[in-house]
Amino acid sequence: MEHAHLYSKISSLPSDIKSEVNDFIDFLMTKRRKEVKKKKPIFGCAKGQIYISPDFDEPLDDFNEYK
Asked: Burial of 15 by CB count in 10 Å (0-12 exposed, 13-18 middle, 19+ buried)?
């Protein structure tokens, strides 16, 4: 919808309905801001989900020929 067309529609409304439109626009903007906020990760939320084997730092057998 073009801005001019939207403006002409809003300007033809009675003042009490313009107030309601203004409130609705504020509501929509507030709703959008809440959706955009990123959730902060909780420290330790992945505890117990990741496992590293005890020989993780040991040299790999695939590289023996390069020694």
From this structure: exposed
Give the model's confidence band at 24: pLDDT under 50 very low, under 70 low, under 90 confident, else very high: very high
**Tokens 């023996």 label which residue?**
64
d(CA 47, CA 27) in angstroms, rounded, equals 39
Q: What is the DSSP string of 21-57?
A: HHHHHHHHHHHHHHHHSPPPPPTTTTTTT----TTTT
Please tell me the pTM assigned to this model.
0.47
- In angstroms, the CA 47 to CA 37 distance is 25
